[in-house]
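# nightly structure sweep
# worker-07 picked up a monomer target from the shared queue
# config: single-sequence mode, recycle default, output format = structure tokens
# input follows
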Amino acid sequence: MFSRRTILAGLTGLVLAPLSASAADLPDLGGRTVVVVTENAYPPLQFVDPKSGKAIGWEYDAMDEIAKRLNFKLEIQNTSWDAMIQAVSDGQYDIGMTGITIKDERKTQVDFSDPYMRSQQFMLVRGDESRFTDAKTFGAFADGLVGAQPGTSPFYTAVYEILDGNEQNARIKLFETFGATVQALKAGDVDTVLTDSVAAKGYVDSSNGALEVIGGPLGTEDFGFIFKKGSDLVAPVNAAIAALKADGTFDKLNQKWFVDYKMGE
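# output follows
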């Protein structure tokens, strides 16, 4: 079973080297409205609380604090993952947040903030899974199917680190949202879903034993917020990220969402 110790190990580097920054040093954006888009499908980063119906999570709290520090009015909207990067690139939204891995190829479309979180990918499976125990044995299990969203880090990890490097491999079943891949896993339509330790903890904790994580980490990812190329928000947000690392705010959010919070309770 996926333990809190594993989660915390998987979040090594979550708080990167702090820089000296205080609230007095931060830019003042004068109360302007900043539209942030997310998917609400990535607990505990951002998701809809099943009890209250309210959208909550680590990224919501972090962005609320960034808005306060920089003095801007925060407006949250939602879109699907497959539309998000292009929509931000086109200027439909000012910032995108949904645990987006910083990748060089994505930097051709959007600008990234400095990393605010580091995580590692793991294999999420049903709680009674016994046919394979890790990436190697899953790769050898010819009937095993993996669910993924096209163009995401889990998709490419499945292709190049678990399977045969063929992006058209029939063992990969594509879904529009991350939540849909997890539902397919629960229903038995696929046999594993790759996700980072952050989302894995949320789903395992709320599954009542129906889901677990197997094997070791399959890679390290740095998460960043995305912006339209040339956005004047990048530098202020980076300054706020540095301040939140330096003053312990991110440490408090990590404790709240990765240790104390229990999905569904």
